[in-house]
Every structure is written in structure tokens, then in C-alpha cells.
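Suppose a colleague, Dr. K., hands you the sequence of a protein chain of 438 amino acids and asks what its three-dimensional shape might be. Before reaching for any lab equipment, you can write down a predicted structure in C-alpha cell form. Begin with the sequence itself:
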Amino acid sequence: MATRIAYAFILLVNSILSWLMLTPWALKKLEHLTLDYMTITCQGKKCYGFVAVQRVNFALGLFHFLLAVLLAGVKSSRDGRASLQNGYWGPKVIVWLALVVLTFFIPEAFFQVWGGYFALVGAMLFVLLGLILLVDLAHTWAEFCLEKIENYDSKGWRVLLIGSTLGMYTASFAMIIVMYIFFAQSGCSMNQAAITINLLVLLITSAISVHPTVQELNPQAGLAQSAMVAVYCTYLTMSAVSMEPDDHHCNPLIRARGTQKASIVIGAIVTMATIAYTTTRAATQGIALGNTAHDDYGRLPQEEGDHGLVEQQPNSSRREMRAEALRAAVEAGSLPANALDEDDDDDDNDYEDRKGGKDDERTRTQYNYTLFHVIFLLATTWVATLLTQNIDYEATGVASVGRTYWASWVKIVSAWVCYGIYTWSLVAPVVMPDRFAN
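The predicted structure, expressed as C-alpha cells, is then:
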């Protein structure tokens, strides 16, 4: 957990730094600290704006790309390269900062192409990945609750499942009502269309989830998954209409808050923190991308000279007798085969505790290290793209984040795509029954 928090914190700091590079505000403050003795320039050009933001995020993206390559194929902490993921924080921070500095020596033409094409594609992939994982989470949550209810006939889990479903639907309709009241006045056709389409698709997907044909092929499908998708997509839609510009007088929030610097700063930091959290969750979940960390049981390969039992201990003979008894029980069929590995894990843990630490990835890593860094790479492209759309080059103060029609439409379309992915997950067994027979 500490490792993931550290990487998320680096992404957060990098994102805030790139946000400050949008306008000359931060650079002027830095120059003011030197009593205006030092003038900050980048090879005689501006150190802020589109290219500066792309430079900072490209540096962190390159940092994660290098780690993804170096950690490819790491399956457990027995691999010496695993320490690169979980340790060496001082050198890694130095490398990251060095890359940030080095990017300012790369010609601007490179970042014009990178930001205009490659970063944009990466940003869209990052958004799509988040939507896929959200749909996967909805199915996983509902199936987990149903499993608890079926296995234990638990009233608590039944109440939790029904209550959460009703709560999420209630929240969805409450947000829709609020949007119609405050953001869908006369002349706000974009908002009216987005809100109405969200409502209609919400009702359609909910109806599909309880359709008899869908239920026959996938009995675990239902309103629980639909509720989670509905509340998330409705939230995206509400976020879109509440962050759009107010040039058509369709966003009363901007008029109410004006251009107060505090609200802009808080909004930007919250946005960056949300991206950091979402990235970390997506990078470690990995279920929808074929992560096999929790799939079928796999026996830990035995290394040469390593039989899994604790050596050089006064009670080693007792441990050997226990291991022999376990092997006999497994051969007789009274215990599953993985009982031997569990015994090995207990001994390994005892050994690690005596060394002063506990290694929870000795058998298998908790997540795919390479995939983890690839997702963080995509996150840097999303941050860069979000910040550099419709830049106000005349602004001299801190810049607002996401308050553009581009950002609003990304959220609106993302909600539609999320509904589409979820609907496909419901009807796919109906359309291709042979493929989903098992």
C-alpha cells in the first residue's frame, strides 16, 4: 500500500507542478522571491504554457515507461528487480526530477507533435480504461454480494445489496433533478440534451439488466450493477454541466463563485488528487485487463536448495514431521494440494518476522508491475491533455482546470461510452451464447 501511495503522491505533485506551469503566475512568484534579480527563461523562450505542461508530464511518463520496461516479467519478490518497485525512493525521485530538467532541453517542435497527437491518444485510452474498470467493478460488487447471500443466507448482505442499489438510484435521480433545475434553463440546449440522454439511457440499461432473456443467460445481472453505472454516469454528466464555461449563462456555479482564486486552487488540487487516486486504483485492480493475480492457484516454483521449510531452527525436526504429515494427508486426498504451500508460507513468514519484516509478495506480486506503470504513463498524458485544452494565454493568475467545453464533452461522451460498455456486457451472452457458454 505504501508503494502505491508514494507513486500516487508523485503523480499528484507532478500534476500540480504542470498546472502551475500553465501561466506565468508561478514563475513570477519565484522571480519575486529573488527580489526580481533573476529572470527565468527557457533558452530565451517562455517557460510556461502548452509546451511547458507537456514537458513536465512527458518527464514523468518517461520515468514510468523506464520502470515498466525494467520490471517486465517480475512475478514475485524473489526476483531481484522487485526492489525497484518498492524501494530506492531517493534515487527514483532524483531520476524523475532530472528528467523534468532534461525535457527543457528538447526542442519545442517535439512537444507540439507529442501533445497534439500521442498524448491525446494516450488520454483517450486512459479514460476508456477507467470506464472498463468501472463496469468490471459494478459486476464484481454485485456478484460478491450475491455470493455471500447464497452461501450464508445473510440478511446483512441482502440489506446492503438492496440498500446500496436503492441509494445509488436515489442519488442518480436527485442529481438529474438538480441538473434540470439549475443547468437546463431556456437556451441551454447542450445541457438539456446531455441530461435527457443520460436519463433515457439510464432507464434503458436498467430495463435491459432485468430482461428475462438477459436473466436467463446471466442470472447474476440485475439492478445492482445498473445502479452503480447509473450513479457514476450521472455524476459525469453533472460534473460536465457544472464545469462548462458560462458564456451562455447556463452555469450558475461560476457566477456564484466568480473568479475567486481560492475556489480555483481548491478545484485544481481536488481534480489532481482525484486523478491520482483513480490512477492508483486502476493500476492495481487490473481485473478487466486479464490480471491473473487472483486467478487459479499456482504452485510456487521451488528454487534450488529451497524446500520451503525453515532451516537451522531448534524445532526443525518438528517442522519436518509436520510437513511429512501434510504430504501424507495430501496424498490420501484429505487435504487440498495447496496445503503444502500454505505451510511453506507460514514458515517463510516466521523467517521474515525474525528478520524484522514481512514480505507479502514472496509467492506472487499483488499486481502486475509493468501494467501498473503503463497506466501511470497514460495518466500523465491525460493530465497534460486536460490542462492544455483551450489555454488562455492572456491569463496571468492561476488557471482553472477542466472549465472548458472540451472537458465537458469528454465527460458527457465518457458517460455514454460507459453505458455502452455496460450494455454490451449484458447482451454479449445473448448475441454470442457459444462464447459465454461457461
